[in-house]
Amino acid sequence: MIIVHHLENSRSQRVLWLLEELGLPYEVQHYARAKTMAAPAELRRIHPLGKSPIIQDGENTIAETGAIIEYLVEKADGRLGAPGDRQSVLRYRYFLHYAEGSVMTNLLMTMVVGMVPLLGKPIQKKLAPLVKVHLDFIEAELGKRPWFAGQEFTAADVMMSFPLEFAAARMDGLKGRPNTKAWLEKIHARPAYQAALERGGPYDFA
């Protein structure tokens, strides 16, 4: 049985969602954030970095959302993995890594510096064009096809969910971006997404 070490209002919601989409059995160990919003110290007993998401599957302990997503797709015999044609494969691979490697980094940096007294707001304004470039790029991509990799829903869409939910909730990033907004509404309507919310508990970004 897969055990998901799930931190409230975090990236680990994507792991629960993918498990529901794949129909893999799992259990959830729930963790609450500290007042500082940091992950609790108990997670370090599971993995030295003490960050969620973490899954345990038999002897395997796996951290990092992207690595977990790839592990689960492989465990499910490739379901929701890369599509058949070459261009879709390349897009799948790209967005699977782009979600955390580029767009989420810029979103978090913008939010964090905005919390710094005095100097934070001017720096945030300088970072805003970088975020806009990413969100405009995503909007354009979703204008070309229904899902990030191509014509079919894949794990790349699962990976891209949190950055766009974060952008919508924390910085009104979907204003004037109808393709992205429609995509977000589409994933939120999926039965597996709703089932994952029930298993995961409160989630401020849905």
Automatic annotation (TrEMBL):
Location of the GST N-terminal domain = 1-80
- Sorted alphabetically, which InterPro entries does this protein's record hold? Glutathione-S-Trfase_C-like (IPR010987), Glutathione-S-Trfase_C_sf (IPR036282), Glutathione_S-Trfase (IPR040079), Glutathione_S-Trfase_N (IPR004045), GST_C (IPR004046), Thioredoxin-like_sf (IPR036249)
Question: Superkingdom, according to UniProt?
Answer: Bacteria
Q: What is this protein called?
A: glutathione transferase
Q: Which family does it belong to?
A: Belongs to the GST superfamily.
Keyword field contains Transferase: yes
Do you know which CDD domains this protein is assigned to? GST_C_GTT1_like, GST_N_GTT1_like
Keywords, ordered alphabetically? Transferase
Task: Please write the reaction equations for the catalytic activity of this protein.
Answer: RX + glutathione = an S-substituted glutathione + a halide anion + H(+)
Please list the residue ranges annotated as the GST C-terminal domain.
85-206
Q: Name one GO molecular function term.
A: peroxidase activity
EC assignment: the record states: 2.5.1.18
Note the Pfam families from the entry.
GST_C, GST_N
Q: Could you name the Gene Ontology cellular component terms for this entry?
A: cytoplasm
* Keyword Transferase appears in the UniProt entry: yes
Phylogenetic lineage:
Bacteria, Pseudomonadati, Pseudomonadota, Alphaproteobacteria, Sphingomonadales
